[in-house]
Specification:
Structural class: alpha+beta
CATH topology: Glutaredoxin
Strand order of the largest sheet: 3-2-6-5-4-8-9
Number of helices: 4
Number of strands: 10
Strand content: 15-25%
Shape: globular
Amino acid sequence: MAVESALVPLGTSAPDFVLMDVNGESFSLGSFSDARVLVVAFVCNHCPYVQHIEKALGELAAEAPAQFVAICSNDVLGYPDDAAPELKKQAGRAGWNFPYLVDETQLVAQAYGAVCTPDFFVYDEERRLTYRGAFDYSTPKNGEPLDASLLRSAILLTATEGAVPEPHRPSMGCSIKWRKAESA
């Protein structure tokens, strides 16, 4: 069942993190300090909503005036297709030339307020949230153009104006697969 992203308040500061990527390299929020615009994308390998946009996301990242970072926060015990080796394959097939991080504890997704995949957060140079929302109007079966129009516009407005006027269209996708609480 598809869920929509939460509307995290604009102006919220990007939470710090330290995560390993699919190649075993460590990244933190500070790793992207040179970026005027930072796009944090919560994604995964198994979700049809992410699969629908993954190549277009790679193309947008290659041309947009922003640094991208992808994070997978899904429970890999329940969803082994979202384990690091599979994420690495996904990045290759999708043409992602940006870090793909693994949030094993799921604390980063919680800190950002991410609830679905894909879920996009755009931050300005001071790492204040300017946009949280959809890639574009398309979904796997609705027939709308897959053109990255909403995210592209948010990146350009952040880079030139420093703000993205509301309303923002929420992301829609698979819910993040939270780890089941262990019984005592």
